[in-house]
Design brief:
Distance between the termini: 94 Å
Radius of gyration: 33 Å
Largest sheet: 5 strands, antiparallel
Number of helices: 7
Helix content: 40-55%
């Protein structure tokens, strides 16, 4: 007796056939023992027989596209089946195993902890919304209204649910499970990282007069976005992670490049804006504020340097 296993794109068992005969035929034709619905598979593609010594031998019966094992690009006419190698016919992967094939020991099931991820998602989600509400309150210059708070918060929550729902749907289609809570945690951690970075960048610009964190905040946002997308793709399937990482890296480089070009053009047109976006209490200022006398002394020294440069310039040279 032997088992024929048809594998999915994630190399998981999609179908399993129990064969009691000493010979099995695999192909697209209905006269086979195992019928493969693949247009690249021949009508009679593969034959598996048991030798007198008990070993299984697979034989390609003359297909046009050939038979391959373990990702090799060299087609084989016949080979001994060991139960471990992946066999590709057409665009279908399958595995052939004897009834006595040894399986690995069962895994120890982790304790059920469904409550902890839910609590973690609630804590992160409430924290992100609280930070957004605090920003609205700090930057508000008119009379407080409920719509001022609820409209942006509901927009963020709605966008978040749509984003997570789309990735959960893709996971359901390609992986068989939605992983809604995992995808929700991934995007919530990303939003929390963006919020914390923006807070730090704004504080650094105000407290230490370091505006680069605000000017190049889009780079950090793109990096976090790329990590979040890779996390979603990893939940869809653990196979070909290098390809998924390369795709995310290409999107990351393209997004940063386009936005850097836009920033450069904006700087050429109107100059770099160094103003702080949010006003903060003076007590948060880490660098001491100079008084007006120090400011005018600095202006006077600069004026003296400019006058000296003008007096030393040669005739015909452009003056500053």
């Amino acid at each position: 007796m032997m088992w024929i296993e048809i594998l999915s794109r994630q190399r998981e068992v999609a179908a399993r056939f129990r064969i009691t005969a000493s010979e099995v035929r695999i192909g697209r034709g209905y006269d086979n023992d195992v019928v493969i619905d693949d247009p690249y598979v021949a009508a009679q593609h593969l034959r598996v027989v048991r030798r007198d010594d008990g070993s299984l031998v697979a034989e390609d019966v003359g297909s046009a596209n050939g038979t391959f094992i373990d990702g090799s690009k060299i087609g084989l006419s016949d080979f001994v089946v060991d139960g471990k190698q992946l066999i590709r016919i057409g665009q279908t992967y399958l595995r052939i195993r004897d009834v006595n094939h040894a399986v690995e020991r069962e895994l120890i099931a982790p304790p059920e902890r469904h409550v902890l991820p839910i609590i973690l998602a609630l804590v992160i989600g409430v924290s992100v919304l609280a930070i957004d509400a605090l920003k609205i309150w700090l930057t508000q210059t008119s009379e407080p209204r409920a719509s001022t708070y609820f409209t942006p918060l509901l927009t963020v929550a709605g966008t978040l649910l749509v984003w997570v729902g789309l990735w959960a749907l893709l996971c359901r289609i390609f992986a068989g499970r939605s992983h809604f809570l995992r995808n929700l945690l991934i995007v919530l951690v990303g939003l929390a990282a963006v919020s914390l970075y923006n807070e730090f960048a704004q504080y650094a610009a105000f407290a230490w007069t370091w505006p680069e964190g605000v000017s190049y905040a889009y780079v950090a946002v793109w990096l976090i976005f790329a990590v979040v997308c890779f996390g979603h793709l990893r939940e869809i399937g653990r196979s070909r992670l290098w390809l998924k990482g390369g795709l995310v890296a290409a999107v990351l480089v393209g997004g940063i490049g386009v936005q850097t070009l836009q920033q450069s053009e904006a700087f050429t047109d109107s100059g770099r804006q160094l103003t702080v976006h949010w006003l903060m209490p003076p007590m948060l200022r880490a660098v001491p504020v100079r008084n007006k006398d120090a400011f005018f002394d600095k202006i006077g020294s600069l004026k003296g340097e400019l006058d000296a440069d003008r007096s030393q310039s040669r005739p015909g040279e452009p003056r500053l």
